[in-house]
Amino acid sequence: MKKISFTNDILPLKNIIYRVALRITLNREESEDITQDTLVKVWNNRDNWDHIDSIEAYSLTIARNLALDRKKLHDNQVRSLDESPIERPDHTSNPYEQMQQKDEILAVKKLVDDLPEKQRSCMQLRDFEGKSYKEIAVILGITEEQVKVNIFRARQTVKQNFKKFDRYGL
């Protein structure tokens, strides 16, 4: 069995832990705290690392649970991801096209933010983090079939609502 190293195996997970927490809480400061708390919890449980099948799934499960607890505690009073930096649009386009691209990116972020938590988490882990259905099922504590259904519903909802936005604006 592979010996798990905090520096080599767990610390590199901090960015994905942060993104998972951010996707749930929609709050940068909370996500930073959750990331730190997750790393501390994993470290404090280091005596049991040899009995864990996937340290990544274990760490992300802790992060998800902490994020859900914090979200409940703060009673959904969160800020939107609209504050996050937007990828720079193609500089060859004119200012109108740049503004339109920015609006579309913000609209998609809002549509994803408005998804139910489980759909948002599944979509985050699959589409943004590249996790397999099996890994997502382990992290979220649901079946692979439920993961697939949640991802399908999330994508359909975002697609349908984006079409409405594209036609009429939000």
Account of the 3D structure:
The chain is mainly α and 170 residues long. It has 8 helices and no strands. The chain has helices spanning 6-10, 14-25, 28-44, 55-73, 95-113, 117-128, 133-140, 144-168. Helix 3 crosses helix 4 (55-73), helix 4 crosses helix 7 and helix 7 packs across helix 8 (144-168). The longest helix is centred in the last third of the chain and has 25 residues, at 144-168.
Care to give the gist of this entry?
This protein has about 170 residues and is mainly alpha-helical. The chain has helices at about 5-10, 15-25, 30-45, 55-75, 95-115, 115-130, 135-140, 145-170. About 25% of the residues are buried.
**Count of distinct strands:** 0
Report the mean per-residue pLDDT as an integer.
83
Report how far apart the termini are. Answer: 53 Å
Shape: elongated
> Taking Cα atoms only, what radius of gyration do you get, to the nearest Å?
18 Å
Class of secondary structure makeup: mainly alpha
